[in-house]
TrEMBL record:
This is Sugar ABC transporter permease. Belongs to the binding-protein-dependent transport system permease family. It comes from the Bacteria. GO terms for biological process: transmembrane transport. One of its GO terms (cellular component) is plasma membrane. Residues 65-276 form the ABC transmembrane type-1 domain. The chain crosses the membrane at residues 7-28, 61-89, 110-131, 151-173, 201-220, 262-279. CDD domains: TM_PBP2. Keywords: Cell membrane, Membrane, Transmembrane, Transmembrane helix, Transport. PROSITE patterns: ABC_TM1. Pfam families: BPD_transp_1.
């Protein structure tokens, strides 16, 4: 083995070892535990598919899956529309103001999810209540104590956090659009909307592939924002799938059952992500 190959394996082996210890071994342990009655300390019995049968009759888990799906769809649309809008705004010739806007829009992404949850909890509980007291508009009162407004509160929080990050992805693709094409379209009589839809949009389709994948996967994995903002309340009506799995594992101490839920949730996320990637990549090819 020559020096180049020895160096290659010298740098690669620590990474492979870390993946094996942190990801691969725990994954297969989790798969095994999903077929057992496991309380986090010991396996009392091997029960086969019993955990998987039970979760399909678990109303709260099924509800949390539906809630998570609805949250993900609305959030993904909101984040990508807002992120693209921000990107179009800051790529205009605004000078130093453009840099300021980029910083402002990206800053929420630098704040941790738990802190964000508490910030928006203050906004919804204190600021909104203050507005309701001053104006008499009851729309602003009790946002986190209602199922529908609690849902929209979570959406607002997540969209506010992720839009700036997705904006950066769209900016990188918009900056690579050849100016010659835009100038030629303008000379041919294209207005701003036609310039965007006929010239820019087809060239930034790959950005949608990346952005949709990131927003979709992150939306399904939301936990800390959910915990800090609503804790799943009222009465579990805003409980997302990740929180349901966590509570099953660490509050009820049914680790085996929680692992079965996690495996099913992983399969759902994987299938949705693969389908999304296939659809958007096909669209790239068509355009």
């Amino acid at each position: 083995m020559n020096f180049k190959k020895r160096t290659y394996w010298l740098f690669l082996l620590p990474t492979l070892f870390a993946l094996l210890v942190v990801l691969i071994i725990p994954f297969f342990q989790g798969v095994y535990y999903s077929f057992t009655s496991y309380d986090g300390f010991q396996v009392s019995s091997f029960i086969g598919l019993e955990n998987y049968k039970n979760l399909f009759s678990d109303e709260q888990f099924l509800y949390s899956l539906g809630f998570t799906a609805a949250f993900s769809v609305v959030s993904v649309i909101g984040i990508n529309v807002l992120g693209l809008s921000f990107a179009l705004l800051v790529t205009q010739k605004l000078g130093k103001v453009s840099t300021l806007f980029r910083t402002i829009y990206f800053m929420p992404n630098l704040i941790g999810g738990i802190i964000l949850g508490f910030i928006w909890q203050f906004v919804f509980l204190k600021a909104f209540t203050g507005i309701a007291d001053l104006t008499g508009i009851e729309f602003f009162r009790g946002w986190l104590s209602d199922t529908q407004t609690g849902f929209w509160g979570l959406v607002i929080l997540f969209v506010w956090q992720m839009s700036g990050y997705i904006m950066v992805i769209y900016i990188s693709f918009l900056n690579n659009v050849p100016k010659e094409l835009l100038e030629a379209a303008t000379i041919d009589g294209a207005n701003r909307w036609q310039n965007f839809w006929k010239v820019k949009f087809p060239l930034i389709i790959p950005a949608f592939t990346v952005s949709l994948f990131l927003t979709l996967s992150n939306a399904f994995k939301v936990y800390d924002q959910n915990m800090a903002l609503t804790s799943g309340g009222p009465f579990g009506s805003t409980e997302m799938a990740t929180m349901n799995i966590y509570d099953t594992a660490f509050k009820v101490q049914e680790m085996g059952y929680a692992q079965a839920k996690a495996i099913v949730f992983l399969i759902i996320i994987t299938l949705i992500s693969v389908i999304q990637l296939q659809i958007t990549r096909r669209k790239e090819t068509e355009l």
